[in-house]
Amino acid sequence: MLQQSPFFQLYLARLREFVRQPARIFWVYGFPTVLAVALGFAFQNRPPAPVVVDVVSGPGVESLRAAVDAHNARLASSAEAAGWRPTIVLEVRPEAEAVKRLLTGKTPLVIDPDEGAKVSFRFDPTRPESAAARETVDHVIQRAAGRGDPVATADVLITEPGSRYIDFLIPGLIGLNAMGGGLWGVGFLLVNLRIGKLLKCYIATPMPRSEFLGAILAARLTFLLPDLAVQLGVGVFLFHMPIRGSLWLVVLLDVAGALSFAGLGLLIACRAATTETVSGLMNLVMMPMWLLSGVFFSYERFPAAVQPLIQALPLTQLVEGLRLVILEGAGIGRPEILRVLAILAAWTVGTFWLALRWFKWS
Amino acid sequence: MTIDANGPAILARSLRKEYPGRDAPVIAVDGLDLEIRRGECFGLLGPNGAGKTTTVEILEGLNQPTSGLVEVLGRSWDRDAPAIRERIGVTLQETHFPEKESVRELLTVFRSFYARGLDVDDAIARVSLESKADALLDQLSGGQRQRVAVAVGLVGDPEILFLDEPTTGLDPQSRRQLWDVILDLKARGRTVLLTTHYMDEAERLCDRVAVVDRGKIIAQGSPAELIARLGGEHVVEFALVEEAPTDPAVFTALDSVLAARAEADGYSLTVGEPHRALPALLDALEEIERPLARLTTRHVGLEDVFVALTGRHLRDDQESDGDAGRRRFRRKSRRR
After folding, report:
1. Which of A101, A300, A334, B171 is paired with B207 by a 20 to 30 Å CA distance?
2. Strand partners, B262
3. Mutation test of the interface with chain A: which of B113, B150, B165, choosing the one with the most A Cβ atoms within 10 A?
4. Which pLDDT score, from 0 to 100, does residue A83 have?
5. B42/A contact by beta carbon, under 8 A
6. In a 3-state reduction of DSSP, which class is residue A158?
């Protein structure tokens, strides 16, 4: 029975092609895992990097150095403040050299201590690390000169599992993998079949086209689930990421996302007949989502004018939904989750409808 | 609609295919008529770009003609595409099959598309790849892969098999193995439509051939008929030790010589009786004091038919459309 089912035979063929190529297995499962582990450790919570600034040599250097040394010594003795306040490293240089380093971006800030009474800062206000370095050094100088804190402040540091960067990142990477898998595993695959004339060879036979596309989708979803398991496993076992919502809802969201990306892949593959065209189209589709969809940092930072566009992107919705379920424990009844599912379903239906109308089989 | 079991296997009338071009439409097929009988092996011959592949793809239902009529086994592609696809087999030029499938696995996939067909192992046996049945495709040689492509065309046990340039780029041994597959199919009474630019292949395999050039059929018949139309049965080819080329017209007057042409590396004469033409040629060369550098004789083949009809070689990369003098002569020789 299955022997004579085109759907089953084509599905099996996809699985065989995949498991017989170790390189593919690495790029689909190994590489994203390595990426998650590397990014997870890179952005782990640890003391902030020291602020390294240039100082113009002159008579005021000594008093500045004394203030900075006192600041660094205070950090070393107090565990609480060391959690986030950076130490400061001064590098004394002639003025011309220091200014040149500032202009070429090698130092964030140039301090000219003059004789100690009037300190001037040279920096580019559009560089966040320059402004932060200026505030840090200014604080140290003013405090050493006797400025007190009129209002008592307390710092509450959040390092609980579930609210760290790695917790934010893992759902983003799951979404990214669903996108890559859909576009490569459907779009690129179909264009390659077209280039290799295999598509033509298939349609010269009585093969039902719906079973052909069905087999590709089924194979895609089959590859998706281990991928999701690996990413969640890295999050949970290596970084102690909590999964607060239902695992089934996570799977449902990932499948809904994967189907919308499969639709996009199919749309890309509609007409493209060269590797160059399909690569260009894939970049055109993936780049905006890499940047805008809030995988690596929150999309809230983009201007309000582009927010509707960002909200419409399938990757934004998928990642948003995954974070809501994994980190906030949202259930399927939450309006935000329903909205995510509705937008992903709209993408799936829309892209498949267009792609099947435009698809060039021969 | 009744299907006439004795009607032609393939019928094409006034077939035309235009592609949009930058200035004017490019005409790939230009009013082509074709009638292929059941059980015959029919060859479409012509140089690259003559329109062979476009024609075959239209007949295979993979391409739509701009105008004209096509019937395959008495059915039309517009109304009966699934029924036709069940009954034909297609081997395309240079298909890239999945590399990590074994021969048996690939054929099992293709076999599942057909309601009726050969047993997968039978299909493998037809192309003599039993020993490679479990080998992955990337472990096969070019000739073996091409035989797999033919097996893919055969696995639905088709009434018509389309073979587009099946032996291009293969070594002589692989070509002969593929010829055996095609001869076996002919012996089983199946219809084969073959495109090729190898004349020896067409002479060996085809009951009838059509010569296609610039989207039109310029001659049709059995290989023997087409060769007979040239008049002579032999070709004398020779080269001379000379500084300036000699006008080949000098040789047309010789005894038993029917036509003379300049070739890229010498001269070619179509000859009725070599035993009369050769002494005459040697005498003439002595007279004009041009010693021979090379001399061979052979039987006329389809290649010569094609050159006589078009003034070009089939694999016309061998000869860029040369100088005006030679062209003028061609026209002259064609008139003879």
Report:
1. B171
2. B267
3. B113
4. 60
5. no
6. coil
